[in-house]
Amino acid sequence: MPQSLPLSGKVALVTGATGDIGTSTCRWLAAAGAQVIVNYRSSEEKAQSLLAALPGQGHGLVYAAVDNSADVQHMADFVAEHYGRLDVLVNNAGFTRFVAHADLDALDDDLIDSIFQTNWRGAFACIRALRPLLAADDGGVVINISSIAGRTGLGSNVAYCASKAALDSMTRSLGRALAPQIRIVSVSPGLVDGPYAATFDRAFIAEQTKRTPLGRLVTAEDVAETIYAVIVHMPTLTGTDVHVDGGRPLN
After folding, report:
1. What is the pTM for the complete model shown?
2. pLDDT tens-digit map of 60-72
3. Domain range spanning residue 230?
4. Is residue 197 in some structural domain?
């Protein structure tokens, strides 16, 4: 965790905050001095518990389903009304379901649409709605939580991989279009050691770990620390992708 408060006076919004990566990110940003706005969709009790556990003061809680643009605009209005600024947006909300890549029939239209509506359109909608706040004052930072699946084509299903590739493409496009006021960076984890990984057979996890050059899967804390580093210590990064994967694609 940060040993100083480089984000003191800053406001950060984390979508999908009740998941492992979202929770760790909220804690890191709050520990760095930011006022953190916790976004949730379906786990209000969990969101309330996270909010209460964050260090510092002035944190907030807001409901919004990112695949609903009206909800996203309501969230933007909430931030404007209660904080009047936004320095960091972490687009962490995401959706997937495991479907074997060769099982084309199981990847039906509704599932494809749901994945893209959350993973791509939801992130875009958040940037679109919050752009005026992010572009004000000294400018802000957007972190899009992507995945190495967007580059390797290996992931929970074909549409998920494609949605993350599209998210990375958006990072490049908007990194150019919204500069210099807003920086946009994709942070792309490999398989994260947590609840999702725990759904797989342990032999599979052991094999993935063995194939990772650094000898371990990444954790949500690893991802959160990378997000913090990009925001605080890498001010020249924009329109690019930072991998947090232990070197997994090398094998």
Report:
1. 0.96
2. 999 999 999 999 9
3. 11-192+219-244
4. no
Catalytic residue numbers, as ranges: 160
Region 50-76 average pLDDT:
98
Residues 217-248: b if buried by 16+ CB within 10 A, e if exposed: bbbbbbbbbbbbebbbeeeebbbbbbbbbbeb
Query: Where do we find the tokens 């599979």?
Result: 204
CATH code at 28?
A: 3.40.50.720
Contact of 29 with 225, CB cutoff 8 Å: no
Q: Alpha-carbon Rg of the chain, whole angstroms?
A: 17
Pairwise CA distance, residues 182 & 202, whole Å: 42
Query: In 110-191, at which residue ranges do the beta strands (DSSP E only) sit?
Result: 140-145, 182-189
From CA 116, how far away is CA 125, in angstroms rounded? Answer: 12
In the chain, the number of structural domains is 1
143 occurs within a structural domain: yes
Residue in the structure block whose two tokens are 């490049």: 172
